[in-house]
Amino acid sequence: MRKWLLLAVAIASEVSASLSLKAALDDSRFYVVVAIGYVTSFSLLAVVLRLGMPLGVAYGIWSALGVAFTAVLSSAIFGEPFTGLMGVGVAVIIAGVLLVELGSHRAQHAPPSQHAADAA
């Protein structure tokens, strides 16, 4: 449970940093938020990996949800366009994240002989 909470904070930090990067174009004080957000995000991602979450799962969820949340929030905050096609893309990203997570659980619970068969 702790891994997931830390990953959620890492995602929120990354999204905050990305949104602040856009805001910093008009107000350079936001660069402080950008730096803190990215350092926090990568540091927490490293902690999550150290706690045992597989890299493919952690990075996949971190990056995919970061993209999805940034797209939605940049539309709400900055008035950037968010089309139906973009919405489909966000849905596909979320579906992909779920598939990676489900695949990870399946691989962890498969007998050792199954891992060799999956690799072939």
From TrEMBL:
It is a multi-pass membrane protein. Its main location: membrane. It comes from the Bacteria. InterPro entries: EmrE-like, Small_drug/metabolite_transptr, Small_multidrug_res. It is found in: Cell membrane. The keyword Transmembrane applies. Keywords: Cell membrane, Membrane, Transmembrane, Transmembrane helix, Transport. The chain crosses the membrane at residues 30-49, 56-78, 84-103. Gene3D superfamilies: 1.10.3730.20. Belongs to the drug/metabolite transporter (DMT) superfamily. Small multidrug resistance (SMR) (TC 2.A.7.1) family. This is Small multidrug resistance pump. It comes from Nocardioides massiliensis.
